[in-house]
Amino acid sequence: MTYNLDEIAQRYSKMDDERLEHIAKYDIADLMPEVQDIISKEIKKRGLNPGLENAIKLQSKQLSVEEIKNIASKIKKLPCPSCGGNDLNLEAGILRQVRSYGFLCEYDTNIFIACKSCINETRKKYLYLNLVLGWWSIQGLYYAPKAILLHFLDKNKTHLSDFLMLNFAELHLGEIVTNWQDEQKLVKFIRHQNNKIY
Ligand SMILES: [Zn+2]
After folding, report:
1. What are phi and psi of 5, to 5 degrees?
2. Residue 143 class from Cβ within 10 Å (0-12 exposed, 13-18 middle, 19+ buried)?
3. In angstroms, what is the span from residue 140 Cα to ligand 1's centroid?
4. Is the per-residue pLDDT at 56 higher than 60?
5. What are the tens digits of pLDDT across the range 168-194?
6. Residue 160: pLDDT band by 50, 70, 90 thresholds?
7. Where are the domains of the chain?
8. pLDDT score of 93
9. How far is the CA of 148 from the centre of ligand 1 (A)?
10. Residue 190 and residue 111: Cα distance in Å, rounded?
11. Would you say 137 and 103 are in contact if contact means Cβ atoms under 8 Å apart?
12. What does residue 111 show for φ and ψ, rounded to 5 degrees?
């Protein structure tokens, strides 16, 4: 199968900035190197965030564990997205939410990144809400106790924070590398991800 690279370049040249940025941050690894190159050039031509080019470069290769750890350590040093404090390294915890609505039940989990005391406080809030709002459906009778049990088990899991932090870094690599120099944007992005469960 042959590809007409000029046609592909033309297609990307018509794409709006937002869509192009999204591809550079999230979908670039699935594209051929020639197409990655086209997107990189288009981003340069438009004068979009230069961090996008680094994001493309990093995602076009297999990252080493050290490289992912480096990205995670960047996150750890940011101010807390919840309280703004910056005297302690950020950690990652897991939030579990169970809500029963009549016959329906929703069970969601989310990685939550913040300082230790904000994580503890938020996890406690989720525990109480699961206790109050989780049980009232057939499935809730299964998921609510599960979430409550795991809430306590998570507490004793060593290295859970590091594991979740690496997971987050790998999942959002494109976004983090793009905004590497812009601490405020990174904090805003993490806050948005933290609140995704609501
Ligand atoms: Zn905090």
Report:
1. -65, -30
2. buried
3. 31
4. yes
5. 999 999 999 999 999 999 999 999 999
6. very high
7. 5-61, 70-197
8. 94
9. 23
10. 10
11. yes
12. -80, 135
- Beta carbons of 176 and 75 less than 8 angstroms apart: yes
Beta strands in 12-171 (DSSP E): 91-101, 104-114
Residue 2's pLDDT is 64
Task: Pick left, alpha or beta for residue 37 (phi over 0 → left; psi -120 to 50 → alpha; otherwise beta).
Answer: alpha
Q: What is the signed CA dihedral for 132, 108, 112, 18, rounded to 10 degrees?
A: -130
Query: Which residues are found with C-beta within 5 Å of the ion, ligand 1?
Result: 80, 82-83, 85, 114-115, 118
Tens-place pLDDT, residues 63-76: 889 999 999 999 99
Distance 40 CA to ligand 1 centre (A): 37
**Higher pLDDT pick, 140 / 189:** 189
If you measure from the C-alpha of residue 81 to the centroid of ligand 1, how many angstroms do you get, rounded to a whole number? 7
Give residue 102's region: left, alpha or beta (phi > 0; psi -120 to 50): left
- In whole angstroms, give the CA distance from residue 150 to residue 194: 19
Nearest to 114 by CA among 173, 171, 198, 193: 193
Q: Is pLDDT at 98 greater than 90 in this prediction?
A: yes
